[in-house]
Amino acid sequence: MRFNKAKCKVLHLGRGNPQYQYRLGDEGLQSSPPEKDLRVLVDEKLDMTQQCALAALKANRILGSIKSSVASRSREVILPLCSALVRPHLESCIQLCSPQHKTDMELLEQVQRRATAMIQGLEHLSYKKSLGELGLLSLQKGRLQGDLIAAFQFLKRAYRKGGENIFSRACCKRSRNNGFKLREGRFRLDRRKKFFTIRVVKHWNRLPGEVVEASSLGTFKAKS
Fold first, then answer.
1. 49 burial level (CB within 10 Å; 0-12, 13-18, 19+)
2. Which helix (H) or strand (E) holds 24?
3. Which of 90-104, 114-128, 187-201 has the lowest mean pLDDT?
4. Whole-prediction pTM
């Protein structure tokens, strides 16, 4: 198999990375601070700020198009459009590119806040009350729900090929909440603590036993 050298770049990770010059055959490979893989933009610091900004930009553009091209402001029209065209950009790949900083979280939340303000009758309500009227979750709560659902599927072996091995069971017989607790690791870097397999553990361990022992995903969603 021949590689296209023009499409091969090096992403140096870590603060102390010596950033060696790599070669493919006789040609040197250029380094790239950010790289996109499967529509996710990852930089050399494993920071999701650029990805969040890109997602917010796309969602805002689509929301602007809806606002300029759709005359109706009724709930029955705007809500399905935003759910189908805008929110997927804000929730795409949440396990991998979940925002790590409050500014990034607020940037994404502003898009949904703008969408709820477009609906007739909700213009003067607060964001929290608007979500309650629409039966929606904030993006932050939606990300947490998505994390717990993904963890449930991994632990119940819905994802095969060794996916169930990404978590470790805690060796503890006594438990207030559930008997399926996960082991919490200790890490020096705050960024490592934001990874999916780490951040979801404390929330999973707080779930009651009847939730984590649910027989199906539908039951888990209904009880969690």
1. middle
2. strand 23-24
3. 187-201
4. 0.77
Question: Radius of gyration (Cα) for the chain, nearest Å?
Answer: 21
Measured in whole angstroms, the distance separating CA 127 from the mean position of its chain's CA atoms is: 21
Tokens 């590689």 — which residue?
A: 3
Where do the domains of the chain lie?
Answer: 5-32, 49-136, 147-223
Tokens matching residue 208: 């009651």
Query: Do the Cβ atoms of 48 and 105 come closer than 8 Å?
Result: no
What does the block give as tokens for 209?
Answer: 């036993």
Within 37-117, where are the H helices? Answer: 49-69, 75-81, 87-91, 94-97, 102-117
- DSSP designation for 169: B
Q: Express each pLDDT in 113-139 by its tens digit.
A: 999 999 999 989 999 999 999 999 999
- Ramachandran angles phi, psi of 41, nearest 5°: -95, 115
